[in-house]
Amino acid sequence: MTRAWNNPLRDPRDKRLPRIAGPSSLVIFGVTGDLARKKLMPAIYDLAHRGLLPAGFSLVGFARRDWEHQDFGELVHDSVKEHARTPFKESVWNRLAEGIRFVQGTFDDDDAFDRLAQTVKDLDAERGTGGNTAFYLSIPPSAFPVVTKQLARSGLADASDDTWRRVVIEKPFGRDLKSAKELNEIVNDVFPEESVFRIDHYLGKETVQNLLALRFANQLFEPIWNANYVDHVQITMAEDIGLGGRAGYYDGIGAARDVIQNHLLQLLALTAMEEPVSFAPRALRAEKVKVLSATKPLGPLDETTARGQYAGGWQGGMKVPGLLQEGGFAKDSTTETYAAVTLEVQNRRWAGVPFYLRTGKRLGRRVTEIAVVFKRAPHLPFDSTSTEELGQNALVIRVQPDEGITLRFGSKVPGTTMEVRDVTMDFGYGHAFTESSPEAYERLILDVLLGEPSLFPVNEEVELSWEILDPILAHWAKKGAPEAYPPGSWGPPSADEMLERTGRNWRRP
Ligand SMILES: NC(=O)c1ccc[n+]([C@@H]2O[C@H](COP(=O)([O-])OP(=O)(O)OC[C@H]3O[C@@H](n4cnc5c(N)ncnc54)[C@H](OP(=O)(O)O)[C@@H]3O)[C@@H](O)[C@H]2O)c1
């Protein structure tokens, strides 16, 4: 069989062809951080391994340590060996290592940014990066403005007619609508909107992109994807770990800002949006903007939201500290580690359907899923005892782990009597496809180098998401400490009551 990439008859616009980035370099700020070591540098290696980076690709690390190029090279080497998805190959590594450089400095050091500008220039001359550079801000959000301004001051942000400069910004993008607007202004003063890539790494996940295929490539689901058939939607991102060592980032931020504002609202947008006219970036983002504009908190907020903070106790046979005992957190911290909200998408398709979004740390299991729960059949022509064990039909998109889709429906229990019970039908990526899914950061870094913005939220999406969340955050700010919940549980009692009040229950994935 002729493979897609070496078939001369195939149209070069064919979306199945591997896309290889053009000449370019990537500068990472915050290279000693967790994200850079565990995700970014391994993803760059994986892209190199798959042959998706250009020949002269160069990687520049910027950090305050007093390092030489080879010290940084060692850091990249070790993080690749430990965390890369694809096997370590000396030949791939050696090629990548030739383009690795390090610049030492702090964010307020003009000289350091001038040296960085010179390094970027030298790399173009030596390795033919075409003057095209992406700047990845893998740094504390408080440093986004100063680094953006330094990029402007040093001329690093200046593109020309035939070169590009792009900036990649990690979450969280602001801490409320006001600060997000201020940050957008600073960033857009320096980079035009099409050069700004705000990362929401959930959008880089295969399972999330598959939501679009599931909805829009099939005839089966779309006719019932509305308030006539859907009872409610539950979007969950649960983690079983705590926040040890992350106080600097998390204290005062909390679960809603950390996860609901970005990941969960993006999942809601993809679940609820109308079919885009195409998958062109503008068309896709326009639909997300439309659906986020129609999304509002459903009140009263005391009954339709819940927040909690994990207490100390036992989890999986281990004694674990509560948040207030974790190093670095204020002893009276009111930061929530669990948040649940009820939203409504106020349009013809969804009016009246609650969207329940929840996230938390130290919960029973690590799982992210979208569950579309359908209404009961309007009439059951069985004795009531026959359907006692019949729940509601549900379509569950398993985002992680165990990526796939589950359909739950009622089936007759074998035997001579009529008894109907829930069964599930499963699609698992691991079973259906032989190739493993790329890591989200692999896909997203490649998209940045290719200038392909579809999977990156635009500033309007970010601002709309804060508009949805701000009234809830303001409501919580007026209340005292969040309710405590035991480690390994599924959140505080008020979260259960929030659904029980409407005759529903959270799924226990
Ligand atoms: N970790 C994740 O999984 C994850 C997931 C999603 C988003 N994010 C976001 O990604 C970004 C990075 O996260 P992270 O977990 O990697 O953070 P981190 O471990 O705290 O690393 C922060 C990095 O920034 C550098 N830095 C801080 N202040 C600096 C200064 N004044 N001058 C120069 N360098 C400075 C640190 O360098 P030193 O080593 O010299 O201190 C370090 O390399 C954050 O915006 C975070 O919100 C992280």
TrEMBL record:
Gene3D superfamilies associated with the record: Dihydrodipicolinate Reductase, domain 2, NAD(P)-binding Rossmann-like Domain
EC number per UniProt: 1.1.1.49
One Pfam family, short name: G6PD_C
Source superkingdom: Bacteria
Catalytic reactions on record: D-glucose 6-phosphate + NADP(+) = 6-phospho-D-glucono-1,5-lactone + NADPH + H(+)
Domain Glucose-6-phosphate dehydrogenase NAD-binding stretches: 27-210
Pathway assigned in UniProt: Carbohydrate degradation; pentose phosphate pathway; D-ribulose 5-phosphate from D-glucose 6-phosphate (oxidative stage): step 1/3
Enzyme active site: 263
Keywords of this entry: Carbohydrate metabolism, Glucose metabolism, NADP, Oxidoreductase
Function noted in UniProt: Catalyzes the oxidation of glucose 6-phosphate to 6-phosphogluconolactone.
HAMAP family: G6PD
Homology family: Belongs to the glucose-6-phosphate dehydrogenase family.
NCBIfam families: zwf
Name by which UniProt lists this protein: Glucose-6-phosphate 1-dehydrogenase
Organism: Amycolatopsis oliviviridis
Gene this chain is encoded by: zwf
